[in-house]
Amino acid sequence: QVDKVAELVARWFYCALSQEKLRRPIVACELGRLYNKDAIIEYLLDKSPDKTPMESASHIKSIKNVTELQLVDNPAWCGDKESIKGDKYDDLQAARFICPVVGLEMNGRHRFCFLRNCGCVFSERALKEIKAEVCHK
């Protein structure tokens, strides 16, 4: 059985298509999967018949099916800033991004939503507090 923590780390820290670490620009589909934008563009451009379609992105037919996300960096996160030599503890629950309204970390423990028109990302708790469909920015 798959470890729940490992599954959350894979979903929130790695591209669903290329399995590489997420890096800006990050896009999301209507199913809520996160992708690197360059991986989606490469997937859409490669129409060779011998290439098998990836099931994680088979529903994406054009770049209009994804939304570029406006993510807020977590000031407490120092993952890529330090050199990783294997001699320090990596906290897998520390998130790279946070909700700009309530400050929840985007690590998979809390539900997050994005607005399709602007790409701003908020926690579900923040959207319930705001009770508006327009972006707070």
Describe the structure.
By secondary structure, the protein is an alpha+beta fold. It has two domains: 1-68, Herpes Virus-1 (2-Layer Sandwich); 70-136, Herpes Virus-1 (2-Layer Sandwich). The protein is built from three helices and seven strands, in the order αββαβββββα. It has helices at residues 4-13, 37-45, 124-130, and strands spanning 26-29, 34-36, 66-68, 72-73, 97-98, 112-114, 121-123. Strands 2-1-3 form a three-stranded antiparallel β-sheet. The protein has a two-stranded antiparallel ribbon with strand order 4-5. The radius of gyration is 16 Å and the shape is globular. The chain starts with a helix and ends in a 7-residue tail after the last helix. This is Replication termination factor 2. Belongs to the rtf2 family. InterPro entries: Rtf2, Rtf2_RING-finger.
Descriptors:
137 residues; globular; Herpes Virus-1; 2 domains; 7 strands; 3 helices; 3-stranded antiparallel sheet; alpha+beta; two-stranded antiparallel ribbon
Task: Set out the fold topology.
Blueprint: H1 4-13, E1 26-29, E2 34-36, H2 37-45, E3 66-68, E4 72-73, E5 97-98, E6 112-114, E7 121-123, H3 124-130
Antiparallel strand pairs: 1-2, 1-3, 4-5, 6-7
Provide a brief overview of the structure.
The protein has three helices and seven strands. The protein is an alpha+beta fold and 137 residues long.
